[in-house]
Design brief:
The structure is a single chain. The protein has one domain: Divalent-metal-dependent TIM barrel enzymes (TIM Barrel, Alpha-Beta Barrel). The chain is built from eleven helices and ten strands. The chain is globular, with a radius of gyration of 20 Å. The N and C termini lie far apart (about 40 Å).
Length: about 375
Amino acid sequence: MNPELSSHDDGENRRSFLKIAGVGVAAAIVTSSAHANRALTEKEKLSRIASNCWPARKIFKSRGDREDSPEVAEMKKKYGQLTMHDFPQWTKDTYPGVYHMDLWSTVFGDTTDDSQYTAATVQREGRTRTFYQWDPSKPSSKRWVDELANLQAKTGTICSHISNNAPQNIAEPNEELRQEGVRVAKIWMDLASVLGAKTMRVNTGIQGSRVMPEATSNDQGYPRNDKIVVYLEQCIKSFRELAEYGEKRDVAITIENHWGLCANPMNIKILIDEVNHPYCEATPDFCNWEHEYHLFHGLEVLMPYTRHHIHAKYWDRWKTEKKDWNDVARSVRILNAHKFTGTISIEYEHGPWDDIEGSKWLMNQVMAAL
């Protein structure tokens, strides 16, 4: 790491930039609200867009010597490779005029520095897998984060949101596992505060499954779902604790429709209503639903709970011979109807283009509908 990036003056400049940038975001939102009845300018629309690591995930450098698939090899040949430290400048070069970023936890860290990683174990569908996960609490990781913050200041980019997969077992009935998930989430919230992020997503997963239990019949003949009540209770407990911690760090904890308990919009509504804290809100995704009718009705349910950030996604899993259910313009119109003025992250999942070209197409679709 360059020692100059750790200097007191540079650190003060970086913190000043992040503070000013945050004020600028608030001012932009007020301006957007004031002019809600007129068409937005191109510059105003770009100020609402955030880049996203997900479309670029295949070209991020990774640990180990895993062989690339033909698709990944082709993308790396076309675009080169990235690290998170490259991402701020890459955002400006790839999406001219965009300066907000949505950073994905899985591609944090220096993949050449073993001291930043810790062994972690996860169980899923009856199988146990051990992998090395980036640990933000390590001293070398903290220095790496400081350098990322300096690069944001240097490039004039803003980390608006962190999409975080690292904390596990937030709804786990096993209290020890649940508490460990909360502990990890708090460390990441400290990191989010350093980077100036206003929101951070945490998943509502449980050990061993991404799918929630269904109701079963009982002696009275009417189905009950007793298992899911336990998961909801544990998840409410976790998110209440994280919201209280987030208030101290000025980082809201968010729930995205992203597997498991939160795949159902009613569960997200229940969680946020029960937590009942200004630092707990929703980050809706246009596509992460279990059936077609959730795409728009689910988004409608979550909009009253959404203040800061949205994942605008295109995913051709919803395209049939008769209809493409993933109507981006219709989803954006729902945001407009609810007077949403936050950032919209461009998350192209899969379709007719490679993920980076697809993200550019998706950005144009979103901007046209704003």
